[in-house]
């Protein structure tokens, strides 16, 4: 699983257990994650995060048996539909991109806005919306509001 010599390998990896490697891979590809075949095999799909600011991050989707190889002996794999252990946030450049990402997630079979922040985060100077993937992992898409957007209703 060595990277091709022209590609700069990611420097940060996020690993998630998924029930269906093929379905989850297709879901994330529909959100513009880029497959990294050099880091993938029959039990793991590696995908580079979308948007240039995130391009050094790699999402590693693992079949349950593979994911179990990485956890402490005797520990259980969290069931994200029952327990939220982490929220993953993609920083993007605009409100339109946030909304577009959620539309893509829903079209690909995810769930839009499983939770909502008050004013979608406006009191914090951000615009944030969330989505849930097939396995129940919670993601956010967020962008900073400019000064004009902060004061508009």
UniProtKB/TrEMBL annotation:
Read off the Gene3D superfamilies from this record: 2,3-Dihydroxybiphenyl 1,2-Dioxygenase, domain 1
Q: Which domain of life is it from?
A: Eukaryota
Q: What is this protein called?
A: VOC domain-containing protein
Bilayer-crossing residues are: none
Q: Which residues belong to any copy of the VOC domain?
A: 9-144
PANTHER family documented for this protein: BLR2408 PROTEIN (PTHR36503:SF2), BLR2520 PROTEIN (PTHR36503)
Coiled-coil annotation reads none
């Amino acid at each position: 699983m060595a990277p091709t010599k022209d590609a700069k390998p990611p420097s940060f990896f996020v690993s998630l257990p998924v029930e269906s490697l093929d379905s989850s891979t297709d879901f994330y590809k529909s959100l513009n994650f880029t497959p990294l075949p050099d880091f993938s095999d029959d039990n793991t799909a590696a995908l580079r995060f979308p948007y240039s600011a995130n391009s050094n991050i790699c999402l590693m989707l693992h079949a349950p048996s593979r994911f179990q190889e990485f956890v402490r002996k005797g520990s259980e794999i969290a069931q994200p539909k029952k327990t939220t252990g982490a929220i993953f946030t993609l920083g993007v450049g605009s409100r339109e991109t946030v909304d577009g990402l959620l539309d893509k997630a829903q079209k690909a079979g995810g769930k839009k806005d499983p939770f909502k922040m008050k004013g979608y985060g406006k009191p914090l100077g951000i615009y944030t919306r969330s989505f849930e993937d097939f396995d129940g992992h919670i993601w956010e898409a967020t962008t900073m509001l400019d000064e004009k957007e902060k004061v508009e209703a």
